[in-house]
Amino acid sequence: MSPWNNIRHPKISTSYSPFCRRVRDQRVLQRGIDSQGKLEMMRRIQQYNSHNLPLKRGAWSPEEDQKLIAYINRHGIWNWIEIPKAAGLLRSGKSCRLRWMNYLRPDIKRGNFSMEEVETILMLHQKIGNRRCAIFKDKALDLKRTEIIPVDAPAIWSAIAAKLPGRTDNEIKNFWNTNLKKNYLKNSINIAVQAPDNPQETQTSKVESKKRKLPEIDVPLPTAPKILKSEESDGSPKLPTANFSSSFNLVNDLIINENQTIEDKVGLLELTGEQCFWCQPFSTEGQKCKVEDYGDTPTVEMWVQELLHGDACTGL
DNA sequence: AATAGAATCAACCGCCAGGGA
DNA sequence: CTCCCTGGCGGTTGATTCTAT
């Protein structure tokens, strides 16, 4: 059975947060339907198209890709809900949009992340952080999100992707979650429990990395999608490049020493004459945000404080 | 060679903002 | 002003692939 025939059934989640439940219940009441009816409506929207035909889910086949590419090349993007119908695809508009934006777009760059890209991701993530998300995860909170989150709060991954032409937010997010985050958190923990300037720290981290199969040098890199591999690659296996190896060592270096900000670190790199993110127009005035300024999970107090009094670290 | 566990990443989910009716 | 629809976001899932034993 080919992977794209593996049609999964959508989950109908009933575990909403208090805020979500309020909103949902309010809307359900407004529309005069009971919650079961609402869930059934959602289910049908997810599973069926306007002709009541079941929507296909899971991995895209090459044929589907070709249909979507051909249609968009010919007619452009005008309405994601209508495009799958017009293109003869049994997919939701959302699914088509996701496939196009993250995968089929002609300007998408594939392959290894360069040193500059890793720097950018690290720096912007430190700047923007997971503040938008961290506050959601505070289970003790039962506040309306819109009361806390400012309208112009940056969208983390898309903001980073905007600085990395050809990279998608999804790709960056996956890269962060699979490669950078682990090292970031690991080293944050090391920082908390070990004395600074411990000469063995770096070595210990590296040993542990290998033990736990964390990427150290020959980190597995995002590769071309399975479906397109045969068409796009030259057939040669992709090995981690020396370029990226040095990038990843840089990542570790950037993270490990808690006594320096990332800006300071990258500033040192500039001395080596390498073109880096900091050469690009980007205001870093007064933005010396250390990890410890917020900690790994910024608190509500910090966030509110920032909103009330402004914070140099928000400038994007 | 077989197996288990870890890693990867495309695709999905739930939700929200904004614009138009 | 309200409602509805669409696009877009971040977090999560799970099938597949890789690696170690």
UniProtKB/TrEMBL annotation:
GO terms for molecular function: DNA binding. CDD domains: SANT (cd00167). Residues 55-108, 155-184 form the HTH myb-type domain. Keywords: DNA-binding, Nucleus, Repeat, Transcription, Transcription regulation. It comes from the Eukaryota. InterPro entries: Homeodomain-like_sf, Myb_dom, Plant_SW-associated_TFs, SANT/Myb. Residues 194-214 are annotated as: Disordered. Residues 194-206 have a biased composition (Polar residues). One of its GO terms (cellular component) is nucleus. Gene3D superfamilies: Homeodomain-like. Its main location: nucleus. It is found in: Nucleus. Residues 52-104, 105-180 form the Myb-like domain. This is Uncharacterized protein. It comes from Dovyalis caffra.
